[in-house]
Amino acid sequence: MRQRETMRRQIITREADAAVRDSGLQLNSQQRAQFESRYIQERRKVEQSLRQQIETERQKEIPALIQQLRKEFQLDEPVKSPAKPAPSQKSGK
Q1: Distances in Å between the alpha carbon of 10 and those of 7, 70, 77, 90?
Q2: How many CA atoms does the CB half-sphere of 32 hold within 13 Å?
Q3: Does residue 82 belong to any structural domain of this protein?
Q4: Residue 25 has what DSSP assignment?
Q5: Closest Cα to residue 16, out of 44, 48, 47, 39?
Q6: Alpha carbon of residue 39 to chain centroid
Q7: Which of 51, 54, 60, 85 lies 20 to 30 angstroms, CA to CA, from 93?
Q8: 56 vs 8: CA distance, rounded Å
Q9: Coil/strand/helix, residue 1
Q10: Is 7 helix (H, G, I), strand (E, B) or coil?
């Protein structure tokens, strides 16, 4: 799990570096660090917003999914026959 988090941070750092390059700005080391920090901060906001949108959409879709599965599984259930009478007791004669 730590390895995955480390890799995620490395990817974000590379993307922040690319954002600085793509911006065309000539920044000193302090400005560059500030730019990268803001990039990462704003990126987190964007990702959080996207997660919320996805969760909202998921919650809208779940009831229909449950209904669909309910119908499918009701069709797949074997037809229940009336309960069988209890077997008669045999006399021990």
Answers
A1: 5, 44, 51, 78
A2: 11
A3: no
A4: -
A5: 39
A6: 24
A7: 85
A8: 25
A9: coil
A10: helix
Where are the alpha helices (H) located in the chain, listed in sequence order? 2-23, 29-76
* 46 part of a folded domain: yes
Q: What would the two tokens of residue 76 be?
A: 């797949």
Residue 92 domain flag: no
Confirm whether 11 is domain-assigned: yes
For 3-52, what is each residue's pLDDT tens digit? 999 998 899 989 999 999 999 999 999 999 999 999 999 999 999 999 99
CA distance 32 to 20: 7
| Amino acid type, 75 | L
Helices (H) and strands (E) in the chain, counts: 2, 0
Task: Give the structural domain span for 14.
Answer: 2-75
pLDDT of 1 reads 86
Q: How many domains does the chain have?
A: 1
